[in-house]
Amino acid sequence: MPPATPDAPPRPGHPAPDGPGLSELLDFAHRTAADPDTLALLPLDPAERTWIALEGPGGSEAWIIGWPPGAETGWHDHGGSRGAFVTATGRLAEQSIAVELPTEGWRTLELVDGVDRERDLPAGRGRAFGPRHVHQVVNASQEEHAVSVHVYHPPLPLLRRYSRHGRVLRLELVEGPEEWAP
Ligand SMILES: [Fe+2]
Fold this sequence. Notes:
Layout: H1 22-33, H2 36-39, E1 50-55, E2 61-67, E3 75-76, E4 82-89, E5 91-97, E6 108-110, E7 116-122, E8 126-129, E9 135-138, E10 146-153, E11 159-165, E12 168-175
Antiparallel strand pairs: 1-2, 2-10, 3-11, 4-8, 4-10, 5-7, 5-9, 6-12, 11-12
This protein binds fe (ii) ion.
């Protein structure tokens, strides 16, 4: 029988085995959103969302996203990843559901009253969210572009898209990274 191999001691500065926590993700999003040189890398399109990938902290995945007036994501989750995002310029609104939903095993779900939340996120504001977060994000402005920074850990394995009719949420589509990678 081979001798047991001792576990390697953790290296200084090495991320914890399960990666960066919500505060670290949110801090990265805030710092990047306040960095004009990094934001300037993003091309803007007057009619379409644009995005570029960044390397996030501790093996996470990050994006800068440009939102023309009226752009929105539709309802979605993040495939079990946690994350954070911060508005860098302009203003975004987030609609979210204040209960943790199972990430799989259902096709339609009827929400109870009182679980809808809305956040106004002007430049410099953001939020972190856990692995079961379901939301949609919109640039409700009719004139102003918005730019935001998003970070996810683990890197998004997939994204589930939902339709919403009143209180009923219905799974419509599961997207893999090949659908959004540039
Ligand atoms: Fe999202």
